[in-house]
């Protein structure tokens, strides 16, 4: 999507850990890996990612992509759940994905025109979508710049390793995220890349 990170980097560099992560990963972070202009498919992929390893999620997402290629949203809604289970999805995730397609069939909610808070409230009405999934949608599909998910374990682990905390509580998160604002999303991209590459601030 060609996002220009320069303003975000300029702001985040006042944090020495972020300055290090920018030095290491400025040319490696992107929004593109999760983006899909088809909203129900984008959210279905995020549901697939819930509580599975990165590697497993990639494999299942590829199989899901192949399964739904060239079929309409209505046809996906009508798919036999056993076909979804065969690609590695649990019964619960099959149900959640169907819930998402069902929601978009009848919803006129304009995501572009609403605030982050309103979008989270709207999406979490769908059974199977919690705040983590809603926030990933804000970050990767709508490219909202100031989103942080305290429920993302990889981010929390990256904060612990980079900032040398044994435990990360609400006070610590508030202090850090207030420094990163209004570019919390970009800070998250850097923290994810750090843990993925196992390269941390010393």
Task: Describe the 3D structure.
The protein is mainly α and 202 residues long. The chain folds into 2 domains: 6-31 and 147-197, Orthogonal Bundle (Endonuclease Iii, domain 2); 39-140, Endonuclease III, domain 1 (Orthogonal Bundle), CATH 1.10.340. Helices cover 62% and strands 0% of the residues. It has helices spanning 6-12, 16-25, 39-49, 54-68, 73-78, 81-86, 91-106, 116-123, 131-140, 153-163, 170-180, 184-197. It is globular and about 50 Å long. The two termini are 32 Å apart. The relative contact order is 0.16. The mean pLDDT is 95.
Any descriptors?
Endonuclease Iii, domain 2, 2 domains, 202 residues, mainly alpha, globular, Endonuclease III, domain 1
The coarse overall form would be: globular
First and last CA, distance: 32 Å
CATH architecture tag of the largest domain: Orthogonal Bundle
- Per CATH, what is the topology of the largest domain? Endonuclease III, domain 1
Quantity of strands, as a count = 0
Order of helices and strands: HHHHHHHHHHHH
Structural class: mainly alpha
Low-confidence regions:
none
The major pleated sheet works out as:
none
Count of discrete domains = 2
State the helix count: 12
* Strand residues, percent: under 5%
What is the mean pLDDT? 95
Helix content: 55-70%
Radius of gyration: 18 Å
